[in-house]
Amino acid sequence: MDRTLAADLARLPQLLDATRRAAGDALASLDARPVVPPAGKPAADGEPESLPERGDGTEAALAAFRERWEPRLSASAGPRYLGFVTGGATPAALAGDWLTAAHDQNSNSALDGAGQDLERETVGWLRALFHLSPDHSGTFVSGATMSNTTGLAIAREWLGERLGVSPAEDGAAALGPVRVLSGAPHSSIAKALAVLGLGRGSLVKVPTLPGREAVDPGALDRALADTPGPAVVVANAGTVNTVDFDDLQAVAALKRRHDFWLHTDAAFGAFAALSPDHAHLTAGLDASDSLCVDLHKWLNVPYDSAVQFTRRRDLQARVFQNSAAYLGPLADHPDLVHLTPENSHRLRALAAWFTLRAYGREGHREIVERDIACARALGELLSADPAFTLLAPVRLNVVCFTLAADPTPARLTALREAAAAEVFVTPTVHEGTAALRAAFSNWRTTQADVHRAAQALRTAAREIA
């Protein structure tokens, strides 16, 4: 064994203690650190280091990381990082993630230990959390993009079933032209269609309700009537800019007249089901043929973690089955290796298992409702300031706003950068207007953080005026 590696093995408990102290220091400093540090060079000395010929061990690597890189990382685990709908990691989720690395499981095969059984139990808990029926089976994937891609891959195979072909065997070209209908699809939908060989051009935007991002059910009805053969509909349970929800029950009811696969992108909107005051928004979610939920958003587990559900596990296995004998059986209850694009993945379910086991439905309901209240408070503070204009009502956990005067992309960039030490928001365009969005999903965020963020935005607006 390499001498340095052997020395580290002999001192492993001490090294883990040092790492724990470093992690504790980083988390303890979240409130004081810049939310996003100023942009800089690739390394503190201006040049990237060369790969060392002979390493000097974990302790030296930890010291180098803390000196050269840690000060330039964003405080994305903290309460005022309001970009990208990013959660943090609850204490239990952090513990689960550390143990995930320590046990280093590939939880895809029955030939190994109980990792995939733990994942299935966790999926069952998530199914109950979102009020889905046992007809939905689920698997963990890396994020919303992969969840949407997996769901649409199953939809692609369903189209083939309707047409008497199998795209998994014969290729996507066997389907002929395909139409995927949606009102305000997330950008990952077009990306998934490109990956799956269906093409970005197959995505058809259906008119939305006036002043909304929710699809017009009447317009969708007409678009389906004009679609030759079976189709795919992508419904939205929480749009990016305004957290608008399609009427999922009305969309599902169109199946009585039209033949289509219903995929619902509920990346973070599914969590509305936890709040009694907002659960009505997710009514009809269970009617989805496939469903995307992103867990490293509002469940507050570390990246990368999402879940996909479907009613047609048989079609899912037809797409993703792997014939290598060493990977485990397909059978009537397929190993997880046969259900996603990955032949291997870390036991990413463990962090979700930990936080659900530690805090239960009530603990996570409190996070969701507190974040919603924080979003509304920020919306009220900004709408009361003449420097800002809200572009949509605060329906759930996102505030979409812009400058009242001259809201150009350049001025909004200047505003974001001027406020970045205190609050991080991301740029967008809503109905042709350049805008910013603040997304609340972190378990640490409180009303005090809202006021601190609002003050930073107000100060930045005055600076660029």
Summarize the structure.
The protein is built from 15 helices and 11 strands. It is α/β, with parallel strands linked by helices. The longest helix has 35 residues, at 349-383.
Describe the SSE topology.
Elements (H helix, E strand, L loop, with lengths): L2 H8 L1 H17 L28 H12 L22 H13 L11 H15 L7 E5 L2 H20 L3 H4 L9 E3 L4 H9 L7 E3 L11 H9 L5 E6 L11 H6 L6 E6 L24 E5 H4 L7 E5 L2 H8 L28 H35 L4 E3 L7 E6 L5 H11 L6 E5 L2 E7 L7 H18 L1
Parallel strand pairs: 2-3, 2-4, 4-5, 5-6
Antiparallel strand pairs: 1-7, 6-7, 8-9, 9-11, 10-11
Helix pairs in contact: 2-3, 4-13, 5-13, 6-8, 6-12, 13-15, 14-15
Protein name: Amino acid decarboxylase
Pfam families: Pyridoxal_deC
GO molecular function: aromatic-L-amino-acid decarboxylase activity; pyridoxal phosphate binding
Taking all residues together, what is the mean pLDDT? 95
Fold-level CATH name of one domain: Aspartate Aminotransferase, domain 2
Q: Which structural class do the helices and strands define?
A: alpha/beta
Coarse morphology: globular
**CATH superfamily membership of one domain:** Type I PLP-dependent aspartate aminotransferase-like (Major domain)
Number of extended strands: 11
Record the strand order, biggest sheet.
1-7-6-5-4-2-3
Would you identify the regions where 5 or more consecutive residues have pLDDT less than 50?
Answer: none
Strand content: 5-15%
Identify the CATH architecture of one domain: 3-Layer(aba) Sandwich
Distance between the amino and carboxyl termini: 63 Å
Classified by CATH, the class of one domain is Alpha Beta
